[in-house]
Amino acid sequence: MTGAWTSSDLLATVxxxxxxxxxxxxxxxxxxxxxxxxxxxxxxxxxxxxxGAVRAAPDGRLQxxxxxxxxxxxxxxxxTVAGAGAQVAALALAPVAIxxxxxxxxxxxxxxxxxxxxxxxxxxAESFPALLTVxxxxxxxxxAHPGPAAPDGPxxxxxxxxxxxxxxxxxxxxxxxxxxxxxxxxxxxxxGLAAGVAAVLISAGFSVLxxxxxxxxLGRPELWGAAVAAVVSQVGxxxxxxxxxxxxxxxxLAVLDPLSAVPAARLLLGERLEPxxxxxxxxxxxxxxxxxxxxxxxxxxxxxxxxxxxxT
Length: 312
Hints:
Blueprint: H1 7-16, H2 29-55, H3 64-69, H4 71-93, H5 96-103, H6 106-118, H7 124-144, E1 147-148, H8 157-174, H9 181-217, H10 221-241, H11 246-269, E2 271-272, H12 278-300
Antiparallel strand pairs: 1-2
């Protein structure tokens, strides 16, 4: 009869009133999980490679020949490559504004892996920054609702070339610096910038492949730019590591990666963050940045020798 509710009407009403997971969590769950997996693998790989490097430096000086022969270092390399593969897969399924911030969790993953392998619980100086990092990242991803503003397609070719030229120039300029804290910090900044832009160009490359197909993509700058940017970001990271203490280069690398990736994704890919909750996700991002900096500085600090036993 007219005006009467049917079972289909009731089902439609219930379905419309169902709880929605926020964008960035529900709409991009596979990519989010892959980003978390990448963070775990990258953290594990860094711990294993560090163990191999320590074993290859019996007198305090690293010997490359010994290091590459260490089985634990080789496994660490394989795990790191797998983590990079998971990151690339995540960028194909989720916005850059989800993937790159979550990769900062690799520092927390490294702390957890190190705790399991050594049996020594994290210190208070490590636990507090780890909680800040995890909490800040979780709130950011939920509140910011990262997602594409509109299906405008890949960025124009000139924008891709400009972004690539920027990171190449930045890394090349800091390569001329010497050693020391300032050089380590500067190289960490440009290395993190290169990593963030590389992630955006990789995402742009996937966008071109999806819209134009492999044959047409080979003639556009996005795909080639992504490959070059990935190499430049690795050069920038290694350059930062070799300039001085990790307590200066590592925080810059870890922070500048997502800080450069999010605005670059907005400019080149049209990704957006939820403006109505800017106070929430902005504060969460600052909390996560603080945690990353503090945790990275503890990771970069050389282990302290045990205190000498006192006579009783």
